[in-house]
Amino acid sequence: MNTELRNRLRPFRDKALAHGIPADDVERWLATARPCVTLTREDGMEPVVGRFGGPLELPADMPTPEDPFVATIDLAALPADATDLPLPPDGRLLFFAWPESDYPDSAGQVVYVPEGATVAERDKHESWNPGDVDEYRAMFDSYPQGPLRARVDVSLPYHTNFTPPGQQRSVLLPGHPRAEELVNVWEDTRDDIATDGPMQLGGYADEEAVYLDPVEIAVSGATHAVESGSWEGPVSADPADWVLLADWFAGEDVARYEGSTVHWVIQREDLAARRFDRAFVTVYWNP
User: Fold this and answer.
1) CA separation for the pair 13, 31 (Å, rounded)
2) Omega into 104 within 30° of 0, i.e. cis?
3) Are 186 and 204 spatial neighbours (Cβ–Cβ below 8 Å)?
4) Axis crossing angle, helix 23-30 with helix 10-18, rounded to the nearest 10
5) What are the phi and psi torsion angles at 270 (to 5°)?
6) Selected residue with higher pLDDT from 90 and 1
7) Is the pLDDT of residue 134 over 80?
8) How far is residue 75 CA from its own chain's centroid?
9) Measured distance CA(157)–CA(30) in Å, rounded
């Protein structure tokens, strides 16, 4: 974590210490901080790096993804070192998702379109055609539209527990006996430190109610999907081998899906190899 981001976390550190949390516990928690990009639709000085919605443009030999189109990110427009993800330096990432869990199947896809690739516009309803089902068409029609601006931010964990390999019950994060208090302090100070936006690249996953890391839950979904034959392996069952690619707080906009959050996760080795088709997508929704 660079000095600028550490300085931005000062309100968190000050409040944690004021709550009587020992300095060593606070520093260990701060060491977990990750840079991330908050994507906002608000006017401002931040660069436009993509958009919600718009035309769906894909190479001719690429199948149309099965889920609705959410957003496009221009990787070359992202600020340098905005995340700790090994993203390509250019090209576009296209995100697709259905804002309702289909456990254990993946609820969306990610498509990488390299810079300079020849593309053509597709019918956004081609593969998941809602037909005459009014509620589904209304859902897709309520997907957000418009430019997305990037704000470089910092992220701390929202979760307090993890499940040790081979066990059924979760335990507090190792080395962090004050995790619950530290998460509460982060929730109290986050608005003073980071921008609020409908989408995030990198960092830690968040949703309406967090206990376990949503990435851990996604990994469990991916392993079950492989076991059921609905998704191809290989996959690692160790959440440390995975990373959050993006969050979308769909419940802010999408009709009937208030509180819904979409998580796109990917194995680190797949991300490094640019195998974005290997991203797995989960949804938290408490209707």
Assistant:
1) 12
2) yes
3) no
4) 150
5) -70, -40
6) 90
7) no
8) 16
9) 10
Q: pLDDT tens across 2-17, in order?
A: 778 788 999 999 999 9
Nearest to 150 by CA among 86, 201, 115: 201
Residue span of the structural domain in which 194 resides = 3-284
Question: Using an 8 Å Cβ cutoff, are 185 and 32 in contact?
Answer: no
User: Is the model's pLDDT at 80 over the cut of 80?
Assistant: yes
CB atoms within 10 A of CB 136: 18
CATH of residue 256 = 2.30.320
- Write out pLDDT tens, residues 226-278: 999 988 889 999 999 999 999 999 988 887 888 899 999 999 999 999 999 99
Quick check: helix, strand or coil at residue 80?
Answer: coil
Q: Is the dihedral of CA 128, 126, 252, 29 positive or negative?
A: positive
Task: Please name the amino acid found at residue 65.
Answer: P
Q: Position of tokens 């990917």?
A: 266
Contact 110, 97 (CB under 8 A): no
Q: Is the pLDDT of residue 24 over 80?
A: yes
16, 185 contact by CB (below 8 A):
yes
Angle between helices 179-193 and 10-18 (to 10 degrees): 140
Q: Give the residue from 161, 153, 281 showing the smallest Cα distance to 218.
A: 281
Helix (H) or strand (E) holding 119: strand 119-122
Contacts of 113 (CB under 8 A, 6+ apart): 57, 58, 59, 62, 91, 92, 93, 94, 119
Q: How confident is the model at residue 101 (pLDDT cuts 50, 70, 90)?
A: confident
Alpha carbon distance 132, 239 (integer Å): 40
- Count how many domains the chain has: 1
